[in-house]
Amino acid sequence: MSPKSKRTRAALTALVVAAGTLATTGAAQAEQSRPGQQQQQLRRPGLFERTATYPVFQNRPAGEDAAAGTVAEISAVSEDGRTLVHTDAVARRIGFLDITDPDRPRGLGTLSLARLGDAEDEPTSVTVVGQYVLVVVNTSVSHAQPSGRLDVVSLRDRERVASFDLGGQPDSIALSKDKRYAAVAIENERDEEATPPGRDEGDLPQAPAGFVQILDLGRGAPPAHWRTRAVALTRADGRALPVLAEAGITEPTDPEPEYVSVNGRNQLAVTLQENNGVVLVDLPTGRITKAFSAGTASVRGIDTADDGRIDQTGSIEDVPREPDAVGWIDDRYLATANEGDWRGGTRGWSVFDSRTGRPVWDAGNGFERLAVRHGLHNEDRAGKKGSEPEGIAIAEYDGVPYAFVGSERDNFVAVYDVSRPTRPVFRQILPATNGPEGLLPIPSRSLLAVSSEEDDAEAGVRASVSLFRLGRGTARTASFPGIVSADDAHGAPIGWGALGALSAVPGKPHQLYTVTDAAYATTRVLTVDTARRPAVVTRELTVKDSAGRPVGYDAEGIHARPQGGFWLAVEGGTGADNKLVRLDAGGVTRQVVTLPADVAAGLGKQGFEGVTATTDRRGHEILWAALQREAEGDPAGVVRLGRYDVTAGTWSWYGYRLESTSTPGDWMGLSEITVVGDRLAVIERDKLNGPAASVKRIYTVDLPASAAPDGALPVLPKRLAHDVLPDLRATNGWTQEKLEGLAVGGDGHVYAVTDNDGLDDATGETVFLDLGTDRRVFGRRR
């Protein structure tokens, strides 16, 4: 969470299958979790439900380019719970949102730090006390010359009423419950490119050392009467304090405090992330009362290789936890998010007894396996620090204490009941946009705000503030998760993601097949049970080449054959690489159908996107395949639907006219095809997401009775069957771009799914939709 190196970067349940239902359990918890944890009962049946996702670029100053970087990192809220304030280090400002109506947050504008100081000043944290916003500002000109201040800004008119020199480069701020104290971690972070004498590049120690700054607020005193007190974490001559050295702090002469939290006894906990330690300070006296190492952990059953496979057989051994955020559960126990920095990171979170400094609970592999189970595992980060739990917040709602733990890389917040601090119980998972950093409980209004620090205008995935309300919803009624996975034969959740196709399972009314695409090195056909809510991935089948070796196809379409086996539509890197692949029931490639040379020559990298099949009057299997975009040489705006007679080995083609778009960088294309009675249903979509998304539709065309004449491309009239955009927006999340899978199940329901791209240029959330009966969607009687 260091401001220069990090802040400036542009299932509701863990589920297992039991007795035909999904039960909330602690099965995804750590190997280190204590026995009996799974039997702990939760006090409240309600779940947090997402009410809105607000893209903060919409709150930019008038005249600013919409593509300019703008983020939401650390958030605070006014005492009435109606005005949210967040830092934006990228744009060097703080933002204000009206959340009076949590279903419709409204931008209230921003305050540029250039008004208060210099255009390069950077906000690192924020809190609110009474009518004042306390803004922590990094003003450092270099790592060797750290500086910062705390500005007190009127919430009413946004004028600065006081400012305090912090004496170094600040990071986080925390307010005591009685509002008598605020504490700021003065990190004075290391220069990752500097080399201390006798050490490696980026190593410690690097002077000057960090410390803690206490701001005495008094009892309702005006800001002009507030005073600061520094708590040194080293001796005046730079030597280590004995209390830190004896605790086993990695480099006690350069503590680098990171994150702060205050309990009900005005005891401050401050993490020393790079030094793998925690220091406790008595705020009234400024005395250090304890210091302890966060220790190490060994975690097994996780994915540790960036190899395109979700392989949960890896492990990390004796790795320093290196905690980032910290939060007091009560006056004795505190919890840390063990993101790690340069030497460690244990991919989970821990609970410590402040009296002994010892861990009493550790998430082990449980936190990372939540990501896998919910399709949020970021394979690109597997070889580094995995899910990177960065943020943590503790709050009590209706008498139940909750811990919220945010995954920086897998884009989710896990919610735990910590009624028994030594035995946390996983409750649900909340989806976020990219890089959730600020976790802001607002118990007075039963709300939780999550602010995200990653902003990618080019990919159209923007930083946001998401709001969640604690309600009476259940896993069956919630919009997220729409799909999760069961455990495999080894007890680990089946890994999944990048679902871009659907097909009914012949003879199984409540099952679908889906298939992974090029986001993963090996293609797998997954079986989905739709009788449960959320739907469950229950089985996986590895796809193999004709020699029986695992193979990686960019599978964008799947059709389960009544005769047995599958057809896959495989998109190629070039036109000639596109193919239809027939698999046997064991997933082995038995037949490959290529495109005609003239059609292949007109295609770029966007080719096959779907495949389905019918049987003609002679009993011949007829394949229907959709190309995504227009082929070169074809009429503008017309994309091809291919008809392939498997027995005759011949292609013929029909045209489909796409909608038009005037948005720069956008295009229209097809992303699925399936047979619905005497019609072909296709998904037509644009390339836009979030608030810009416009076209996510299902159209139908009449199923041609025979092949088109050679060389012809007759355009089939289309009819709108269903606009899926309202269904996607009804999740109150970031509207996903890639609506790609469509099927009519054997139960007569129409299902659709979005491709999460394996979290590459995407939030990672998969939306799995039951759109209702085929009669409702297509006007068709069964």
Automatic annotation (TrEMBL):
<feature type="signal peptide">
    <location>
        <begin position="1"/>
        <end position="30"/>
    </location>
</feature>
<dbReference type="InterPro" id="IPR015943">
    <property type="entry name" value="WD40/YVTN_repeat-like_dom_sf"/>
</dbReference>
<dbReference type="Pfam" id="PF13449">
    <property type="entry name" value="Phytase-like"/>
</dbReference>
<dbReference type="InterPro" id="IPR027372">
    <property type="entry name" value="Phytase-like_dom"/>
</dbReference>
<keyword id="KW-0732">Signal</keyword>
<dbReference type="InterPro" id="IPR011044">
    <property type="entry name" value="Quino_amine_DH_bsu"/>
</dbReference>
<dbReference type="InterPro" id="IPR052956">
    <property type="entry name" value="Mesenchyme-surface_protein"/>
</dbReference>
<feature type="domain" description="Phytase-like">
    <location>
        <begin position="495"/>
        <end position="757"/>
    </location>
</feature>
<protein>
    <submittedName>
        <fullName>Esterase-like activity of phytase family protein</fullName>
    </submittedName>
</protein>
